[in-house]
What does this fold into?
Amino acid sequence: MSLAVTIRRISDQVSYNLVCAPNYPAEDKTSLNREEQRVNSWLADALRDAARMEDVIGWLQLAEKSVQMAFQHHRNHDENAACKAFENANEYLRNAAKRKPHKIDFVAKFDGQVERAQDQE
It folds into this structure.
């Protein structure tokens, strides 16, 4: 399976969880733990497949963190935060699929001062 197909599959599953978690339809025979394991497993596969694509890996890592946070928010009964984290994960997955480069908005200097980054173009 290509990386693009894998990312689309993960995004579809994240969207499913956004809509259904934590009260999944009975006919789906799934649970929060099963869904978390499924999505994390697919993300691990995608990260392995994207081994030499720095920008893609960065977006997938952000998606992975957001997915982990979303499931944790569900366990803490914070549905709004869980939905926001799933939405963020989907945005990161879209960026990974597009191979969008990361944008640097600011630079922190050694002395602690922060400056706006110069345009890279």
Notes: The longest strand covers residues 106-108. The two ends are 35 Å apart (CA to CA).
